[in-house]
Each structure stands twice: as structure tokens, then as C-alpha cells.
Amino acid sequence: MKIGLYVCTCGTNITATVDAGKVIDELTAQFPESYAAQVEFICAAEGKEFLKDHLIANRPDRVVVAACSPREYESTFMQILAEAGINPYYLQMVNIREQVAWVTPDPAQATRKATTAIRAAMMRVRYQEPLEKIEQEANGDVLVIGAGPAGLQSALFLAEAGRKVVLVEKTPVIGGMPVLYEELFPTMECGPCLLEPFEAQVLHGDSAHNIELLLLSEVTGVTGYYGNFTATIKQAPRFVGTTCIGCGMCVEACPASAANEFNCGMDEKKAIAMPFLGALPNLPYIDPGSCLRSLGQDCQLCLDACPMPGAVDLEDPGRIVERKVGAIILAIGSKLYDCSKVNGLGYGEIPGVYTSLEFERLASSNGPTAGEIKIPGGSSPASVAIVHCVGSLDPQHQQYCSGICCEYAFKFNRVLEHKLPGTKIHHFYKEMVTAGKSDFVMYEHARKNPDAGFIRYREIEEIQISASASGQKIAYRREDNTVDSIATDMVILCPAMVGSGDAAKLGDMMDLTRGEAGFFDELNGRLHTAQSKVKGIYLAGTCQAPMDIAQATSQAMAAAGYVLSGLAAGKKLVIEPISAFVDEERCSGCRICGGVCPYKAITFKDDTHTSSVNALLCHGCGTCVAACPAGAIQGNHFTNKQILAEIEAILQ
Amino acid sequence: MAQKPKLAMYWASSCGGCEIALVNLNEKLLDVDAHFDFMFCPCLLDTKISDIEALPDGSLAITLFNGAIRTSENEEMAHLLRRKSKLLIAFGSCSSKGGIPALSNLSSKSDHFGTIYLDNVSLDNPQGILPQTRTTAPEGELELPEFYERVRHLAEIVEVDYFIPGCPPEPHQIWNVVEALVQGAQLPPKGSTLGGGKSTVCNECAHRKENKTIKKFYRTYEIVPDRERCLLEQGIVCMGIATRDGCGALCPQVNMPCTGCYGPPEGVLDQGAKMLSALGSVLDIGSSKDLSDQQISGRIDAAIEGLPDFAGTCYKYSLAASLLGGKSR
After folding, report:
1. Cα end-to-end span (Å), chain A
2. What is the pLDDT of residue B229?
3. Long-range contacts of A110-117 (CB under 8 A, 24+ apart)
4. Do B283 and B222 have their domain in common?
5. Domain total of chain B
6. How many CA atoms lie within 13 A of A505 on its CB side?
7. Three-state secondary structure along A453-465?
8. Which of A418, A587, B32, B140 has the most neighbouring CB atoms within 10 Å?
9. For all residues of chain A together, what is the average pLDDT?
10. What CATH number should be reported for the domain whose range is A3-125?
11. Do A631 and B266 touch (CB under 8 A)?
């Protein structure tokens, strides 16, 4: 077999220690059918031209380039092989610069080392096979799960680029959590005011025709892979159709009511109702849990009250739909850590102890008190404690800082100062975090509030809240180990953000891994936070990590960007040939490999009882090749034969 | 009448089970006799080595050579039978891969002699006498075969035409090979394995298999495994995943783990290493996030407590032919 060996001198980078002539003499003696050439700068324009011409003139069966790191120039030389009409996978590179010349000062030793390394490559390259990239058609449509700020941003961005988007939302309303907040940090702008124009774009904007919005819906199954997913979506009945004009007459007529989930159960709403004032889309829905009909009664007062024929449909069965998409963006949000897990805070037991989310609703004009901040007795609080870091920065609970709580705590400070001037505010905190270019302003404002005090506590479990005749008594231990107590009328707990309850279900469905706090694992924490570990499934917003609206919407754009770049119109998906494949004759169906693939590229075929690797998802890492006890999985370009030939040559 | 082709069967370092397996052909043994002149088999017949030595080279059509190479006598017989045979077949695990005798390669010759002749409560050897290859006695010089430093498999000594795996090979597989030879069927390239499949025992095992993760290994007496489910998934170290098929999955079918006697599957160089690689891939020690190296290794130790003899379990039949080979060289 004729192997063309090209040894680069890299100026004197390589030849200062490696005697290239000696290397070439020794190897051409060992491989008499092969030839060798010394090149000064093989990566330079002249060097590349020389290589191409030389390859065309000599037509070697295989090519070895001994130069620098393949990370730098392997793809360049592969391209040159292709241009010379040689399969690019017939190339083997040897790094005799970083791994030999630069680290082996003794010339004799360096020359011997370079010879050995190149001999190994020449032995290996003989077994290298011609491989081809394969192209596959891909679907450019996208499934976005969750219609909070991140999901809306992704959906709208993609729709504006002409992509068909299926936007699935579990609740009857879009906008996510912030649409329930009267004011947002750091500018104190109104949440619904910020989001409503954005929501309107999704519902009625110029690109809305590209978005299929499925409310009251949940994804129940996902099959397939990048470029070719099939999602099954179950949509619960709304019982109200699009001919509804949102007049609300049905709501007035409805005789049943139950706890209002949008106000954290702090008041009730009718069985047919708008989720909240200003909710979009502006349509009521029936909560089957409280509707008298689902209790077996023959009530149709809402239908009778409705002025629009056909708007109320009490027989709406809901539906199950299937959608084919090329990529999936998860924007399912997060939830608050359960404060009742933190001992001594009395959450759920002591009246007047609220979570931050409950307080947001108390402070909202469309909340249970129409924006009047009241304690259970009906009066306004004269003294409020805001407890930061609940369940955060604590090995017993969650170790991390959620990064947004201090900010909204200072927002609460301003809301209280504005709505109830003179109210005493006590900030209990473990750490104070005000990163970012505008966040310190909020902290400074709170510091300047003459009615606000700051107490740094040592451990959250050393805060003991008990009920008193007028409100609560808070006993605590300061950072300096002194103890004290104060009396308050209201306590607001600022808990850690943790993964949503739906993350487990969706994660299992799509083979996504999650960390202990329930957030989805990203591909890389620095470079690819918007990409999950499964190709074609992207992450946007707080389902990946705690973050604020600005970060969530930026990440949503990043997720959409991956889709637009990876599944560009008219572009086919390229399947890299360096992947694993299963020899069906030898596969016994033992299923050792089934769980080892980090990219979920392995599936089990029930008809043949064998495993199979999806080359599109395979990254060629070789984990399954090592795991397969039958030797039935082979890694292209890293076969046993190739690797053993290389090792043997080194050990010679 | 034309002379029938000559068939021989020899045992080197072996237990005799391979001969039993041949006899287990039952009435088909008569067919073997009809087609062959079964003329040499020290376990069953009275022909002498001198009879074989007297034959012209290449006179034996087929020799089924079982047993490993432990002594100089084993080696001598391997050379003799190679010379006299047209087809030399390594028959069974010992001659193919070293078999159980090769587990002795985990200790040196001096360790063995120490335990057998010097340091053992049942011994009475105050002079510390060890076996010698030559001993002078009043009657003359006595000769014993040499006990080698390590056990080798047949192909390390002589060129082997084919291999038949199994401890012992299953009678139906022996018959398949004999039948193919009798019918003059096209044989695979020299050095191939006959009488076995190309996949693993799981291919023939009816137990239900799922994607595997193993939290803890158990020894067979510790649990009563579910009869329907894959034994390995239940924590019992079943070698079926890393063992050539062909036996009919006899052991796992009766809820006993495969011990690996059919050797590594086609193309696998080291059965034990493959098994280790597979088990390591599916061992579930929970999340190792934020754990120290010590904690991680503690968890691994706890999980593999039920696998106290790794070499004896995973290299039971293939140590001599493995890449690692054992302690004695």
C-alpha cells in the first residue's frame, strides 16, 4: 500500500529538535511502497498548493501528515484530500510539534519519538476506510413548550423568520408568571403593560399565522430525533370557542366557584371565568373541577346567558393532536421552593406569612385585594419582614443563589413605601446579591428608605417565626451570633427557584437529564446553555437555571437561533460518518448499550431484537463501542483494527 | 473397501469432560464410527502413543485436541498430533483459550508448588521435596514431565486449524461440525471457530431484557431471581452478554448465570475485559456530583461487593488467551 507521508518542519518549530531527514529515511525504509516529502509550512498557501499538486501527481492510497495539532488543521488537510480526489478519511495526522518537538528537548529522543508516532499513524492509516457524509431532509417547524416570556419570545422570533411554530401552554392564558406581577424590577414598569403588546403579536400580529397556539395543552409524547420529531399533544376542553367576545355575562350567571389558582388560592373565582383581569387571550374557560355539570348537575346557566351563539360549547371533548417538528424548545419555567420545608418559618401555619408570589398578587390591581396590601384581619400592615435566601445558599436545601430574589425584595420595599408610607420594613438576608448594570439602584433605594432596616442572619433555621396576638414574632440570630426578636404584621418569604414539576415528566419523555434542583442540564454551562444534551432540543428561560426576564428572553433568542442556523431553510442535515454502527448479525439484544449513550442515539428495535444507533444523533464518542460486550458495535474511524495497529506500532 | 479416514481425540491438561461430551452424541457415535476410523483416544481406547508415532505424517484426518498445555508432555503431544493430523481442532475451552487450568496463571509456579508440596496442613514433607524432571533411583533414572511456569492454550504451541468452544462443547454442536466434515462442506477460513454462533448467549436466552443499570451485584445464593427477567439486570453476574452463543443458553434458561464457557464472542479479543467494560458502563452508583473521589470509590466498592472474584468469574475459561494473561508470564 502506497502511503504518502508529508512531514512539516513548521519553520524550525519542529526541526529544531526533530531530525526530519532521519525520520523520513527510517520510515521510507520500513514502508518501501510509500513515499515521503518534507514541507516547510504545509499550512501556508504555498504548502497547501504543494500538497494538493503532489497528491494529484502521486496518487497515494493513504495520506499521513506529520505537523501540528489536528485540532488546528485536520479539516484543512481533509479538504485538500477531497480536492485532490482522495477520500478525506484516508488522512491521518500526527502532532509532532506540540506533542514532540515542543516538549522533548533532546534531539535524539525527539527524533525517535516522532518516528514512532508517525510509524503508528502509517500502520493505522492502512486500515482507514473511505467514509462519506450523508445528508438527510429535516423538518423546519418547531414545537415551543411554555408560553411565558421565553416561550413567547422564541415563538415570535421563529414565526417572524417564517417558521411554523406549535406553541403549547398548560394554562388557559399566555404570558407566564410576570404577567401576574404589577411591577417589575429594576424599572418598576408594569408587568402586563410590558408583556401585553408582546402577547398581542403572538395572537394577532403579522406573523401570528405561523403560530399554532394550543392552550390548556400538555405534551404527552415525543418520538423521533433532531429534524424529525413527532409530538403528541393533549388539549383539555375550554368549553368556550373563538366566537366569544369576552363580555363576561356567563361569568355573572355562573353559580359555582372555587379557589382561584391565579391568586394562589387567596380568593375564589367562578367555574366559568377569565383567568384574571386582562388575561390574554380574552376568553373565559370552564374549570371542570368546580363546574356543577362535572358534579352531575344539569346546569347550563352560562350557555343560556351567552349572547353569542356557539361561543359556549358544553360538549367540547378536547382533543389529542400530533405535530411533526424538527426541533423543540423547552420554556416551561420553574417554581418556588416549598417554604414549608424550612423549619421555623411557619409557612402555611401562621397567618400573615406569605411567599413572594402571594405578595405579588396582593400587590396587583387584578389580584384578590385589588392591589390593597392587607393582612388577614383586613387591615394594612404597619411592619413587614422580608426574608431573603429562603432555601437558598444552604446545603440543607438548595446550595445556589437564585439571583433574582434580592431584586424583587427591594421591589417589594418600594411597593410598600409607595402604597403604605411609613410601614416599617425589615430585610432579613444571608447574602446580598445585586449584580448587573442596573440592579444596584434598587438596593440603594431600599437602603435610603428611612423606614427600612437590614438584618444579616446566620442561618435560616435560626429564624423562628411564631404567631402573636397582633401578628408575628420573629426571633433570630444575627451574623455576629447575637440574638434578638421583632414583632411584625406580615412576613414575605423569598424562596429559591427550583425546577418545575413538569420538568421530570417532560425530561423523562425526551431523555433529558436534570440536576438535583430539577433544572434541565445544558450541553455546556459556558458555551451552550440554551442547548440540551439531546440534539434538537433547546432550553429557554428558568427551566435551565434561575434567571430574570432579560436573561430568559435572551436565552429564548439563542434557542431560536440554534433552530434557524441548524435547520436553515433548504439545508439538509449532515450526518457525520465518524459514528457508531451496530452489526445486527452479532447484536444479541442484551441491551447493555441502551442506557449508556449520552446523546440518546441508541434505540432498541423490537422487530429484530437488536439495538441501533441513529447516526444523526451519534457524536462518535465510542461509549457504546466500549460497552458492547458482543463486539457488535463498531466505531467508524476508530475500529479495533485501526487502534490495535497503532498501539502495536508504538510498542514495537 | 476404501480405508475410513482416521479420527483421534487427545486430552492434555483437562478433566475428561470433553470425552464425555463426545460420548453424549449417544447413538450418533455409531455414525461417527461408520464414517471414521476412531483410532486414538486415551480415555476410551487402548491405542498407544507409539502407534501414533509409527504413522506417516498427516495420517490422521482429524484430531480433536482438548485440554490446556500445562506440562512438557502436553506440549510434546501437541507437536506430535499436529504433525500427524491434517486438521487439528482445539476442542473445548481449555485447548481454545486455556480454560479453568489457566486460572492458575494468576499465581506463579513456585506459589503452586509451595501450596501443593510445602505449605499445607495436610502435608508431611519435612525435607521439602519438590517434583523433579529427572530423579535417579536404584532402579535407574525416572523422568517426569516438566510443570511449566504458565498454562498455555493450544494455538500458542502449534498451528490450529479450527476451534470448537465450550466446557464442554455441546453434543449438538459437535455433531454439526462432524456432519460438516463428513459431508465435505465448504469450511470457513483457517483459524475460525466452529460449532458456535456469531453473537452472544443473550441471543439464545429467552429472559426479558430491558435497558440495563445495575445498582448492586449479588451472588447466586443471596437472591431468588425472577424467572422471566434478565439475570444480569437483577444483579447476578451472568456472563452471557460477553460469551459466544451456540450452547442454547442452557444455564440462564434454568436460572443459573452463564459462566462464559463458550469464550469471547466473534471478534472480541478479551472476554474478561469486555465484561468489565460492559459492567462498568451500566453500574449505577447514583449521582456522583459533588462527591469526593473517596466517596465515589466507596460507592463502587459497595456495588461490586457481590463480585468478590473478578478474574475467576470473568476470565474463568479464557485467561490464557486474554490480552492481560494473568500474573505468571
Report:
1. 20
2. 95
3. A110/A17, A110/A18, A111/A17, A111/A18, A111/A19, A111/A22, A111/A23, A114/A14, A114/A18, A114/A23, A114/A66, A115/A22, A115/A23, A115/A26, A115/A27, A116/A649, A116/A650, A116/A652, A117/A66, A117/A650
4. yes
5. 3
6. 9
7. EEEEECCHHHCEE
8. A587
9. 95
10. 3.40.50
11. yes
Low-confidence ranges of chain A (pLDDT < 70): none
**Domain-by-domain residue ranges, chain A?**
3-125, 142-230+319-327, 249-305, 334-498, 576-636
Rounded CA separation A106/A652 (Å) = 21
Q: b/e map of B163-181 (b: 16 or more CB within 10 Å)?
A: bbbbbbbbbebbbbbbeeb
CA atoms of A244 and A232, how far apart (whole Å): 27
B232 and B83 share a domain? no
Residues of B with CB under 8 A from a CB of A: 198-203, 209-213, 230, 232, 240-242, 245, 264-269, 274-275, 277-278, 281-282, 287, 289
- CB of A590 within 8 A of CB of B209? yes
Distance from CA of A23 to the nearest CA of B (A): 31
Residue B265 is nearest to which of A593, A627, A630, comparing CB atoms?
A630
Average pLDDT, chain B: 94
Q: Residue A392: beta bridge partners?
A: none
What is the domain extent for residue B217?
A: 201-314
* Residues from chain A contacting residue B229 (CB–CB below 8 Å): none
Rounded to an integer, the average pLDDT of B277-294 is 88
Residue at B284 is within a domain: yes
Contacts of B283 in chain A (CB under 8 A): none
A35 beta partners: A4
Same domain, yes or no: B178 and B51: yes
Nearest chain A Cα to B197, which residue? A586
- The cell for B307 is 463480585
User: Quick one: which of A599, A507, A492, A494 has its CA closest to A546?
Assistant: A494
User: Do A588 and B268 lie within an 8 Å CB cutoff?
Assistant: no
Domain membership flag for residue B218: yes
Q: Are residues B177 and B245 in the same domain?
A: no
State the smallest CA–CA distance between residue A21 and chain B in angstroms. Answer: 36
Chain B interface disruption, residue of A587, A590, A648, most B CBs within 10 A: A590
Confidence (pLDDT) at B324: 83
pLDDT of B171: 95
Cβ of B281 within 8 Å of Cβ of A630? The answer is no
* Of A43, A122, A40, the residue nearest A75 (C-alpha): A43
> Could you report the predicted ipTM of this complex, rounded to two decimals?
0.90
Question: Can you name the CATH fold of A334-498?
Answer: FAD/NAD(P)-binding domain (3.50.50)
- Let me know: does A144 contact A555? Beta carbons within 8 Å: no
Is there a domain that residue B283 lies in? yes
Same fold, A3-125 and A334-498: no
Let me know: does B154 contact B80? Beta carbons within 8 Å: no
Whether A596 and B281 lie within 8 Å, measured CB to CB: yes
Min Cα–Cα distance to chain A from B243, Å: 7
* Cell, residue A268: 375564589
- Contact between chains at B210 and A591 (C-beta distance less than 8 A): yes
User: Does residue B321 form part of some domain?
Assistant: no
- With CB atoms and an 8 Å threshold, state whether B281 touches A623: yes
Domain A142-230+319-327: CATH architecture, name and number where available: 3-Layer(bba) Sandwich (3.50)
